[in-house]
Amino acid sequence: MPGTKFVTATGDVYVDGLLSGRGWNTGTLTFSFPSSASFYGSGYGSGEPANGFEAFNATQQSAVRGILGHYAGIINLAFHEVTETSVTHGDLRFAESDAPSTAWGYYPSGDAEGGDSWYNSSGGDYDNPVLGTYAYLTLLHEIGHALGLKHPHEAGFYGAVPADRDSLEYSVMSYRSYIDSPLDYYRNGYSSFPQSLMMLDIAALQQIYGANYNTNADDTVYRWSPATGQMYVDDVGQGLPAGNKVFLTVWDGGGRDTYDFSAYGNALKVDLDPGAWSTISSSQLASLGNGRVAAGNIANALLYKGITASLIEDVIGGNGNDTIAGNGADNTLAGGPGNDVLSGRGGDDTAVFSGDADRYEITLNGNGTWTISDLRDGSPDGTDTLSQIEYFMFRDTVIDGDAAAEKATTTGLPPDVVAATANHEPVARKDVFFARKGTELNVAVENGVLANDSDEDGDALTAAIHRDPRKGKVDLDADGSFVFKVGKKFTGKVKFKYAASDGETVDKAKVVVKVLKRGDYDDILDAGGLTASLDSHGLDSIPAPVPVAGNACFDPFRDGSDHTLRGFDHDWLSGTGHVYDLYV
Q1: Is the domain covering 4-204 a CATH 3.40.390.10 domain?
Q2: What is the mean pLDDT of the chain?
Q3: Beta strands 221-224 and 258-260: pairing type?
Q4: Is the pTM of this model over 0.70?
Q5: Among 418, 320, 443, which Cα is nearest to 360's?
Q6: What's the CATH fold of domain 217-419?
Q7: CATH number of the domain at 435-515, please?
Q8: How far apart are CA 243 and CA 230, in angstroms?
Q9: C-beta separation of 368 from 387 below 8 A
Q10: I need a surface site. Which of 147, 184, 421, 490 has the fewest CB within 10 A?
């Protein structure tokens, strides 16, 4: 019997509410299916072997092997089957008994019963554990106990899971069919039980054993059958559910991955954010009882310690009017037929269309969204609405949406790109700022993100965050001034995006903050779109006056004070020796 370990909390009450505080202190566990009660020895547990003992049948054994494989695909724990004898015992043992009225499992421990689970032998409720049934859920649930998970409604070591996540939609360890349902019994339909570990189970198990990033670590395509509910991973079926339901959580180890819903003809609601649900078919939603249905068909696993490798990057929509939202990755979203709404969220995202660009009307709306209408006969791609999507991919070309927003029609872009308003759009320009490691960057309005922007109509501009940085935090005021904070130990490049608005239309631009170690550069010149760094020898000579555009956060005079060098035309900063000559 392997040793056990104490499991610390994550700090997330939803995850910690499933932790018993115990786990196995090993990377490999054995399992077995005892054929005789005598293999358990005397004084075992609660007397299960002596009370109506029955060995698992072939169907039950096969289900256990599959479920343990599912567990192993999520955590860094391997399972090896052994043949149970009077001297050889599995760490996890499976059998039936009349002792439990339903089923129970023992937490990890050094006792003989530690890791074992028992299932009632009288009613036959557990004899045929098909995917999506109560019997299958029970195996998922009791193995969870055997590996260190507790019930979410119990206080336990770290407290209970908050009520708004205590249901089978979030954990197979729950006694509740839906949020706030009674604890006495499940109300789900026959084939409406979870088909996998759910998002909180996965997160809690990974806290105990770590996350397995070898599972589907390549570019993986996930799809589902509208007729049966079966999931396919790279066209390999994952098991036929008992009924035509889809009710599961996806954990993916890495690569560039795709949800392919092209087989569906109804309107989809797809969300790629960690912990979010997607609904691909209302008829395939699990029936949870009392007229309730599951929050969705497919849930995305939560990130383990913020690692983004498990994100799903791409979506292929169905034939209906789909709503598809991305996540923080660089998503590729293909709405397909129908009038779709696509939102990229973070990252540099791409919307995909099936025809050549000149067969579409591309309209920039006043609120910064795009409308792209298929002008071909029958409008195969329909009319789509896009937001926070940077690129439009057509069969013959890719259009940079940010560039198209600056100018209604430019060389190489389709002539049907039009502005939705006669008002001239503002022009937002890229900004670059420097910050020292461990310090807060405060940028005043005169040097803020709007300082180098313009508006042909002379309209006053306001600034707003369009996309937050992945590292650090930025507080941007409407006047363009901002405060940027990042961890004291961080160095490197951070990007965020802002929108400049004239009250009717917007333009977006990137802001780059370069966080430098002390001593990396003595001299740094920032001139908006132009940046340059001077090596540690600095300038040998600086002619006076020095009319240079932009702000200089460096010490050219070696006097330890700050200097601002600013020009108003095309000016030169020249030097000799270890210098750079800059034309501004």
Answers
A1: yes
A2: 88
A3: parallel
A4: yes
A5: 418
A6: Alkaline Protease, subunit P, domain 1 (2.150.10)
A7: 2.60.40.10
A8: 9
A9: yes
A10: 184
